[in-house]
Amino acid sequence: MRVDWDEADQRALQQLVTKRFAMAAGTYGLALLLTWITVVGGFYQAPVDTALLCAGLILVSQLVFFWIFIRGHNLRFRDPSLTEPQVLVGLVWLTYFLFNLGSNRGSLLVLYLLVLMFAVFLPPKVFVRYAALALFSFIGLSLVDLQLERLVEPQAAILQASVLLVTLVWMCLFVGYVNRLRQRMRQRRFALQAHQETLRGMMRQLEDLAATDELTGLYNRRYFLKRAETEVNRLRKGHQSGLALIDLDHFKRVNDQHGHATGDRVLQSFAAVARSCLRDGDILARYGGEEFVLLLPSTDAEQFSACCERLREAFASAEPANTSLPCGQLSLSVGMTLLDAGDNLDESLQRADEALYRAKHGGRNRCEASWVDVLGSGAERSDGTAG
Ligand SMILES: Nc1nc2c(ncn2[C@@H]2O[C@H](COP(=O)(O)OP(=O)(O)OP(=O)(O)O)[C@@H](O)[C@H]2O)c(=O)[nH]1
Protein backbone atom coordinates (compact mmCIF):
# COMPACT_ATOMS: atom_id res chain seq x y z
CA MET A 1 0.00 0.00 0.00
CA ARG A 2 1.38 3.39 -1.00
CA VAL A 3 1.59 6.03 1.71
CA ASP A 4 2.35 9.73 1.03
CA TRP A 5 4.78 11.38 3.47
CA ASP A 6 5.83 14.98 3.50
CA GLU A 7 9.52 15.60 2.86
CA ALA A 8 10.70 16.33 6.43
CA ASP A 9 8.77 13.33 7.81
CA GLN A 10 10.23 11.23 5.05
CA ARG A 11 13.81 12.17 5.90
CA ALA A 12 13.34 11.57 9.64
CA LEU A 13 11.61 8.28 8.97
CA GLN A 14 14.26 7.12 6.52
CA GLN A 15 16.97 7.85 9.10
CA LEU A 16 15.11 5.83 11.69
CA VAL A 17 14.40 2.82 9.49
CA THR A 18 17.94 2.82 8.12
CA LYS A 19 19.22 2.64 11.70
CA ARG A 20 16.89 -0.29 12.34
CA PHE A 21 18.11 -1.96 9.18
CA ALA A 22 21.72 -1.50 10.34
CA MET A 23 20.77 -3.15 13.65
CA ALA A 24 19.17 -6.09 11.85
CA ALA A 25 22.16 -6.45 9.50
CA GLY A 26 24.51 -6.32 12.52
CA THR A 27 22.47 -9.06 14.21
CA TYR A 28 22.77 -11.21 11.09
CA GLY A 29 26.51 -10.66 11.21
CA LEU A 30 26.63 -11.98 14.80
CA ALA A 31 24.36 -14.90 13.88
CA LEU A 32 26.66 -15.82 11.00
CA LEU A 33 29.59 -15.69 13.42
CA LEU A 34 27.70 -18.16 15.60
CA THR A 35 27.13 -20.38 12.58
CA TRP A 36 30.85 -20.57 11.97
CA ILE A 37 31.57 -21.19 15.66
CA THR A 38 29.23 -24.19 15.49
CA VAL A 39 30.96 -25.33 12.28
CA VAL A 40 34.47 -24.98 13.76
CA GLY A 41 33.32 -26.49 17.09
CA GLY A 42 31.97 -29.55 15.30
CA PHE A 43 28.31 -28.98 16.29
CA TYR A 44 27.15 -28.37 12.74
CA GLN A 45 25.78 -31.70 11.49
CA ALA A 46 25.43 -30.89 7.78
CA PRO A 47 28.07 -30.40 5.07
CA VAL A 48 29.97 -27.11 5.35
CA ASP A 49 28.67 -26.22 1.86
CA THR A 50 25.20 -25.70 3.37
CA ALA A 51 26.62 -23.22 5.92
CA LEU A 52 28.40 -21.38 3.09
CA LEU A 53 25.23 -21.35 0.98
CA CYS A 54 23.22 -20.09 3.95
CA ALA A 55 25.72 -17.29 4.68
CA GLY A 56 25.66 -16.31 1.00
CA LEU A 57 21.84 -16.19 0.91
CA ILE A 58 21.73 -14.07 4.05
CA LEU A 59 24.25 -11.67 2.55
CA VAL A 60 22.21 -11.41 -0.67
CA SER A 61 18.96 -10.87 1.24
CA GLN A 62 20.53 -8.02 3.25
CA LEU A 63 21.97 -6.44 0.11
CA VAL A 64 18.48 -6.52 -1.43
CA PHE A 65 17.03 -4.85 1.69
CA PHE A 66 19.85 -2.30 1.63
CA TRP A 67 19.08 -1.47 -2.02
CA ILE A 68 15.38 -1.07 -1.19
CA PHE A 69 16.19 1.34 1.66
CA ILE A 70 18.74 3.35 -0.31
CA ARG A 71 16.36 3.80 -3.25
CA GLY A 72 13.53 4.71 -0.87
CA HIS A 73 11.26 1.96 -2.22
CA ASN A 74 10.44 1.01 1.39
CA LEU A 75 8.40 4.22 1.71
CA ARG A 76 5.77 2.74 -0.59
CA PHE A 77 4.79 0.30 2.13
CA ARG A 78 2.59 0.77 5.16
CA ASP A 79 5.54 -0.30 7.36
CA PRO A 80 8.58 1.42 5.78
CA SER A 81 10.99 -0.41 8.08
CA LEU A 82 9.95 -3.67 6.36
CA THR A 83 9.94 -5.45 9.71
CA GLU A 84 7.72 -8.31 8.62
CA PRO A 85 9.82 -9.43 5.62
CA GLN A 86 12.99 -9.07 7.73
CA VAL A 87 11.52 -11.18 10.55
CA LEU A 88 10.31 -13.76 8.05
CA VAL A 89 13.79 -14.05 6.48
CA GLY A 90 15.27 -14.34 9.99
CA LEU A 91 12.88 -17.11 11.07
CA VAL A 92 13.40 -19.14 7.88
CA TRP A 93 17.19 -18.83 8.12
CA LEU A 94 17.22 -19.69 11.83
CA THR A 95 15.01 -22.75 11.37
CA TYR A 96 17.30 -24.05 8.61
CA PHE A 97 20.37 -23.38 10.76
CA LEU A 98 18.84 -25.16 13.79
CA PHE A 99 17.82 -28.06 11.57
CA ASN A 100 21.47 -28.54 10.68
CA LEU A 101 22.49 -28.48 14.34
CA GLY A 102 20.51 -31.65 15.13
CA SER A 103 20.35 -32.45 18.84
CA ASN A 104 22.61 -29.45 19.64
CA ARG A 105 19.93 -26.96 18.70
CA GLY A 106 18.50 -26.53 22.24
CA SER A 107 21.22 -24.13 23.36
CA LEU A 108 20.55 -21.82 20.38
CA LEU A 109 16.78 -21.75 20.89
CA VAL A 110 17.14 -18.23 22.30
CA LEU A 111 17.89 -16.97 18.78
CA TYR A 112 14.16 -17.18 18.00
CA LEU A 113 13.59 -14.57 20.69
CA LEU A 114 16.33 -12.42 19.22
CA VAL A 115 14.61 -12.45 15.81
CA LEU A 116 11.21 -11.76 17.38
CA MET A 117 12.61 -8.80 19.33
CA PHE A 118 12.56 -6.89 16.03
CA ALA A 119 8.80 -7.50 15.83
CA VAL A 120 7.81 -6.15 19.27
CA PHE A 121 6.55 -2.89 17.77
CA LEU A 122 4.31 -4.63 15.25
CA PRO A 123 0.59 -4.87 16.08
CA PRO A 124 0.06 -7.61 18.72
CA LYS A 125 -1.96 -9.77 16.30
CA VAL A 126 0.88 -9.76 13.78
CA PHE A 127 3.41 -10.51 16.51
CA VAL A 128 1.35 -13.51 17.69
CA ARG A 129 1.40 -14.79 14.10
CA TYR A 130 5.21 -14.70 13.95
CA ALA A 131 5.55 -16.13 17.47
CA ALA A 132 3.33 -19.07 16.40
CA LEU A 133 5.44 -19.48 13.24
CA ALA A 134 8.60 -19.66 15.39
CA LEU A 135 7.05 -22.23 17.75
CA PHE A 136 5.67 -24.46 14.99
CA SER A 137 8.94 -24.22 13.06
CA PHE A 138 10.84 -25.44 16.11
CA ILE A 139 8.31 -28.23 16.84
CA GLY A 140 8.42 -29.10 13.12
CA LEU A 141 12.20 -29.60 13.35
CA SER A 142 11.75 -32.21 16.11
CA LEU A 143 8.97 -33.91 14.11
CA VAL A 144 11.20 -34.07 11.02
CA ASP A 145 13.99 -35.51 13.21
CA LEU A 146 11.48 -38.05 14.52
CA GLN A 147 10.49 -38.94 10.96
CA LEU A 148 14.14 -39.31 9.98
CA GLU A 149 14.71 -41.37 13.14
CA ARG A 150 17.44 -39.06 14.38
CA LEU A 151 15.60 -37.65 17.41
CA VAL A 152 18.03 -38.69 20.15
CA GLU A 153 16.27 -37.25 23.25
CA PRO A 154 12.49 -36.79 22.73
CA GLN A 155 12.01 -35.54 26.35
CA ALA A 156 14.64 -32.84 25.84
CA ALA A 157 12.88 -31.77 22.62
CA ILE A 158 9.53 -31.56 24.49
CA LEU A 159 11.15 -29.53 27.27
CA GLN A 160 12.76 -27.16 24.75
CA ALA A 161 9.44 -26.67 22.91
CA SER A 162 7.70 -26.00 26.26
CA VAL A 163 10.32 -23.43 27.25
CA LEU A 164 9.89 -21.75 23.87
CA LEU A 165 6.09 -21.82 24.26
CA VAL A 166 6.16 -20.22 27.73
CA THR A 167 8.67 -17.58 26.64
CA LEU A 168 6.67 -16.74 23.53
CA VAL A 169 3.40 -16.45 25.49
CA TRP A 170 5.14 -14.06 27.87
CA MET A 171 6.50 -12.07 24.92
CA CYS A 172 3.00 -11.86 23.36
CA LEU A 173 1.64 -10.43 26.62
CA PHE A 174 4.55 -8.01 26.79
CA VAL A 175 3.94 -6.87 23.19
CA GLY A 176 0.25 -6.24 24.04
CA TYR A 177 1.35 -4.10 26.98
CA VAL A 178 3.90 -2.18 24.87
CA ASN A 179 1.24 -1.58 22.24
CA ARG A 180 -1.26 -0.18 24.76
CA LEU A 181 1.48 2.03 26.17
CA ARG A 182 2.33 3.35 22.69
CA GLN A 183 -1.33 4.06 21.95
CA ARG A 184 -1.67 6.01 25.18
CA MET A 185 1.48 7.98 24.37
CA ARG A 186 0.19 8.70 20.86
CA GLN A 187 -3.11 9.97 22.29
CA ARG A 188 -1.21 12.18 24.72
CA ARG A 189 0.93 13.50 21.88
CA PHE A 190 -2.18 14.37 19.85
CA ALA A 191 -3.75 16.06 22.89
CA LEU A 192 -0.51 17.98 23.43
CA GLN A 193 -0.41 19.05 19.78
CA ALA A 194 -4.04 20.22 20.04
CA HIS A 195 -3.17 22.22 23.18
CA GLN A 196 -0.15 23.72 21.45
CA GLU A 197 -2.33 24.72 18.48
CA THR A 198 -4.84 26.37 20.85
CA LEU A 199 -2.03 28.17 22.66
CA ARG A 200 -0.57 29.36 19.37
CA GLY A 201 -4.01 30.67 18.35
CA MET A 202 -4.36 32.45 21.68
CA MET A 203 -0.87 33.91 21.31
CA ARG A 204 -1.81 35.21 17.86
CA GLN A 205 -5.00 36.74 19.30
CA LEU A 206 -3.02 38.32 22.12
CA GLU A 207 -0.46 39.71 19.67
CA ASP A 208 -3.30 41.15 17.56
CA LEU A 209 -4.89 42.65 20.64
CA ALA A 210 -1.59 44.11 21.81
CA ALA A 211 -1.06 45.69 18.37
CA THR A 212 -4.58 47.03 17.82
CA ASP A 213 -6.36 50.19 18.88
CA GLU A 214 -9.65 49.06 20.37
CA LEU A 215 -11.82 51.91 19.09
CA THR A 216 -10.72 52.14 15.47
CA GLY A 217 -9.29 48.68 14.86
CA LEU A 218 -6.15 50.34 13.46
CA TYR A 219 -2.67 49.55 14.75
CA ASN A 220 -1.77 51.29 18.00
CA ARG A 221 1.16 53.61 18.63
CA ARG A 222 3.35 50.94 20.28
CA TYR A 223 3.02 48.56 17.35
CA PHE A 224 3.51 51.36 14.83
CA LEU A 225 6.76 52.53 16.39
CA LYS A 226 8.13 48.97 16.41
CA ARG A 227 7.07 48.30 12.85
CA ALA A 228 8.21 51.71 11.58
CA GLU A 229 11.64 51.18 13.18
CA THR A 230 11.95 47.90 11.25
CA GLU A 231 10.86 49.58 8.01
CA VAL A 232 13.37 52.40 8.49
CA ASN A 233 16.19 49.94 9.15
CA ARG A 234 15.18 47.96 6.07
CA LEU A 235 15.23 51.01 3.83
CA ARG A 236 17.91 50.70 1.13
CA LYS A 237 19.98 53.59 -0.23
CA GLY A 238 18.15 55.43 -3.01
CA HIS A 239 14.73 54.34 -1.73
CA GLN A 240 12.27 56.43 0.26
CA SER A 241 9.23 55.91 2.48
CA GLY A 242 6.59 58.44 3.38
CA LEU A 243 5.72 59.32 6.96
CA ALA A 244 2.69 61.46 7.84
CA LEU A 245 1.03 62.69 11.00
CA ILE A 246 -2.70 63.17 10.49
CA ASP A 247 -4.80 65.19 12.92
CA LEU A 248 -8.58 65.67 12.76
CA ASP A 249 -9.50 69.35 12.76
CA HIS A 250 -11.48 70.94 15.58
CA PHE A 251 -12.23 67.55 17.02
CA LYS A 252 -12.80 69.00 20.46
CA ARG A 253 -15.68 70.95 18.95
CA VAL A 254 -17.23 67.73 17.60
CA ASN A 255 -17.04 66.23 21.06
CA ASP A 256 -18.37 69.34 22.77
CA GLN A 257 -21.26 69.93 20.34
CA HIS A 258 -22.31 66.38 19.51
CA GLY A 259 -21.08 64.33 22.40
CA HIS A 260 -18.19 61.96 23.02
CA ALA A 261 -19.99 59.00 21.40
CA THR A 262 -20.31 60.92 18.14
CA GLY A 263 -16.63 61.85 18.42
CA ASP A 264 -15.83 58.13 18.72
CA ARG A 265 -17.86 57.36 15.60
CA VAL A 266 -16.00 60.08 13.71
CA LEU A 267 -12.72 58.43 14.68
CA GLN A 268 -14.07 55.09 13.44
CA SER A 269 -15.27 56.76 10.30
CA PHE A 270 -11.77 58.13 9.66
CA ALA A 271 -10.36 54.60 10.08
CA ALA A 272 -12.85 53.21 7.54
CA VAL A 273 -12.17 55.98 5.02
CA ALA A 274 -8.41 55.62 5.42
CA ARG A 275 -8.58 51.84 4.97
CA SER A 276 -10.43 52.27 1.70
CA CYS A 277 -7.85 54.81 0.45
CA LEU A 278 -4.71 52.87 1.37
CA ARG A 279 -3.03 49.73 0.05
CA ASP A 280 -2.27 46.55 2.00
CA GLY A 281 1.39 47.33 2.68
CA ASP A 282 0.67 50.84 4.02
CA ILE A 283 0.85 51.13 7.79
CA LEU A 284 -1.72 53.33 9.49
CA ALA A 285 -1.99 53.61 13.27
CA ARG A 286 -3.79 55.67 15.85
CA TYR A 287 -1.01 57.74 17.35
CA GLY A 288 -3.14 59.02 20.24
CA GLY A 289 -6.45 60.88 20.70
CA GLU A 290 -7.52 62.21 17.34
CA GLU A 291 -4.05 61.93 15.82
CA PHE A 292 -3.00 59.22 13.38
CA VAL A 293 0.28 58.24 11.78
CA LEU A 294 0.85 56.81 8.34
CA LEU A 295 3.89 55.06 6.86
CA LEU A 296 3.92 54.43 3.15
CA PRO A 297 6.81 52.15 2.14
CA SER A 298 8.60 52.64 -1.19
CA THR A 299 7.23 55.95 -2.33
CA ASP A 300 8.41 59.38 -3.43
CA ALA A 301 7.34 62.95 -2.69
CA GLU A 302 4.85 63.11 -5.55
CA GLN A 303 3.13 59.77 -4.88
CA PHE A 304 3.06 60.33 -1.15
CA SER A 305 1.56 63.83 -1.46
CA ALA A 306 -1.09 62.45 -3.84
CA CYS A 307 -1.95 59.68 -1.39
CA CYS A 308 -2.32 62.05 1.58
CA GLU A 309 -4.33 64.47 -0.50
CA ARG A 310 -6.65 61.68 -1.59
CA LEU A 311 -7.15 60.71 2.04
CA ARG A 312 -7.85 64.32 3.07
CA GLU A 313 -10.45 64.75 0.35
CA ALA A 314 -12.10 61.40 1.06
CA PHE A 315 -12.48 62.23 4.75
CA ALA A 316 -13.79 65.73 4.06
CA SER A 317 -16.55 64.31 1.89
CA ALA A 318 -17.32 61.32 4.12
CA GLU A 319 -20.56 61.21 6.07
CA PRO A 320 -19.90 59.35 9.34
CA ALA A 321 -22.57 56.70 9.94
CA ASN A 322 -24.88 57.07 12.99
CA THR A 323 -23.95 60.70 13.59
CA SER A 324 -25.89 63.88 13.12
CA LEU A 325 -22.82 65.49 11.59
CA PRO A 326 -23.38 66.93 8.15
CA CYS A 327 -20.58 66.18 5.74
CA GLY A 328 -18.45 69.24 5.22
CA GLN A 329 -17.96 69.69 8.96
CA LEU A 330 -15.16 67.19 9.01
CA SER A 331 -11.62 67.80 7.90
CA LEU A 332 -8.10 66.79 8.73
CA SER A 333 -4.62 68.22 8.49
CA VAL A 334 -1.54 66.29 7.45
CA GLY A 335 2.15 66.82 8.11
CA MET A 336 4.30 64.82 5.67
CA THR A 337 7.93 63.92 5.54
CA LEU A 338 10.11 61.46 3.64
CA LEU A 339 12.33 58.80 5.15
CA ASP A 340 15.69 57.97 3.59
CA ALA A 341 18.04 55.11 4.41
CA GLY A 342 19.79 55.80 7.73
CA ASP A 343 17.14 58.29 8.94
CA ASN A 344 16.24 58.45 12.61
CA LEU A 345 12.56 57.71 13.27
CA ASP A 346 12.18 60.21 16.15
CA GLU A 347 13.71 63.01 14.08
CA SER A 348 11.48 62.09 11.13
CA LEU A 349 8.39 62.17 13.35
CA GLN A 350 9.56 65.58 14.58
CA ARG A 351 9.78 66.80 10.96
CA ALA A 352 6.26 65.49 10.25
CA ASP A 353 5.00 67.18 13.42
CA GLU A 354 6.47 70.50 12.36
CA ALA A 355 4.78 70.17 8.97
CA LEU A 356 1.50 69.33 10.74
CA TYR A 357 1.90 72.42 12.88
CA ARG A 358 2.21 74.49 9.72
CA ALA A 359 -0.89 72.82 8.25
CA LYS A 360 -2.88 73.69 11.37
CA HIS A 361 -1.62 77.21 11.47
CA GLY A 362 -2.10 77.65 7.75
CA GLY A 363 -5.84 77.19 8.17
CA ARG A 364 -6.29 73.40 8.61
CA ASN A 365 -7.83 71.00 6.08
CA ARG A 366 -4.57 70.75 4.19
CA CYS A 367 -1.40 68.70 3.69
CA GLU A 368 1.98 70.26 4.37
CA ALA A 369 5.31 68.67 3.49
CA SER A 370 8.53 68.97 5.46
CA TRP A 371 10.52 69.01 2.22
CA VAL A 372 8.86 72.27 1.07
CA ASP A 373 10.68 75.49 1.80
CA VAL A 374 8.65 77.16 4.55
CA LEU A 375 9.37 80.63 3.24
CA GLY A 376 9.04 79.55 -0.40
CA SER A 377 6.14 79.89 -2.77
CA GLY A 378 4.14 77.08 -1.17
CA ALA A 379 3.64 75.51 -4.57
CA GLU A 380 3.60 72.05 -3.03
CA ARG A 381 1.15 72.90 -0.35
CA SER A 382 -2.32 71.57 -0.96
CA ASP A 383 -5.51 72.52 0.79
CA GLY A 384 -9.19 72.16 0.53
CA THR A 385 -9.90 75.70 -0.50
CA ALA A 386 -7.51 77.04 -3.11
CA GLY A 387 -3.79 76.59 -3.95
N1 LIG B 1 -14.58 61.06 21.32
C1 LIG B 1 -13.30 60.95 21.59
N2 LIG B 1 -12.56 62.04 21.80
C2 LIG B 1 -11.26 61.95 22.04
C3 LIG B 1 -10.63 60.68 22.11
N3 LIG B 1 -9.31 60.91 22.38
C4 LIG B 1 -9.13 62.22 22.47
N4 LIG B 1 -10.30 62.87 22.25
C5 LIG B 1 -10.59 64.29 22.26
O1 LIG B 1 -10.00 64.91 21.14
C6 LIG B 1 -9.91 66.29 21.42
C7 LIG B 1 -8.63 66.84 20.88
O2 LIG B 1 -8.73 68.23 21.01
P1 LIG B 1 -7.56 69.20 20.68
O3 LIG B 1 -6.25 68.54 20.97
O4 LIG B 1 -7.84 70.50 21.37
O5 LIG B 1 -7.60 69.38 19.14
P2 LIG B 1 -8.75 69.83 18.15
O6 LIG B 1 -9.98 70.24 18.84
O7 LIG B 1 -8.90 68.70 17.17
O8 LIG B 1 -8.12 71.05 17.47
P3 LIG B 1 -7.06 71.08 16.33
O9 LIG B 1 -6.30 69.79 16.39
O10 LIG B 1 -6.19 72.26 16.64
O11 LIG B 1 -7.79 71.21 15.06
C8 LIG B 1 -10.04 66.44 22.95
O12 LIG B 1 -11.26 67.04 23.26
C9 LIG B 1 -10.01 65.00 23.45
O13 LIG B 1 -10.84 64.84 24.59
C10 LIG B 1 -11.43 59.52 21.92
O14 LIG B 1 -10.97 58.40 21.96
N5 LIG B 1 -12.75 59.71 21.65
What does this structure look like?
This protein is of the alpha/beta class. Helix 2 runs antiparallel to helix 3 and helix 5 (124-147) runs antiparallel to helix 6 (154-211). It is built from 11 helices and 7 strands. The structure holds guanosine-5'-triphosphate. The site of guanosine-5'-triphosphate has 17 residues, from strand 2, helix 8 and helix 9.
Descriptive keywords:
387 residues; alpha/beta; Alpha-Beta Plaits; 2 domains; 11 helices; 10% strand; binds guanosine-5'-triphosphate
What does this entry show, briefly?
This protein has 387 residues and is an alpha/beta fold. It is built from eleven helices and seven strands. Strand 5, helix 11 (345-361) and strand 6 form a beta-alpha-beta unit.
In total, how many domains does the architecture comprise?
Answer: 2
The overall average pLDDT, rounded, is: 89
Shape: rod-shaped
Across the major sheet, the strand order is 1-3-4-2-5-6-7
Assign a percent range to the helix content. Answer: 55-70%
Q: Major beta sheet, specifics?
A: 7 strands, mixed
Number of strand elements: 7
Q: SSE order, as H and E?
A: HHHHHHEHEHHEEHEHEE
Computed CA radius of gyration, to the nearest angstrom: 41 Å
Q: Which regions have little confidence, pLDDT < 50, spanning 5+ residues?
A: 375-381
Ligand identities: guanosine-5'-triphosphate
Tally of contiguous helical segments: 11
| Percent of residues in β-strands | 5-15%
State the separation between the terminal residues, measured CA to CA.
Answer: 77 Å
The helix/strand class is: alpha/beta
Domain GGDEF: 239-372
Transmembrane segments: 21-44, 50-70, 105-122, 156-179
EC number: 2.7.7.65
Organism: Stutzerimonas nitrititolerans
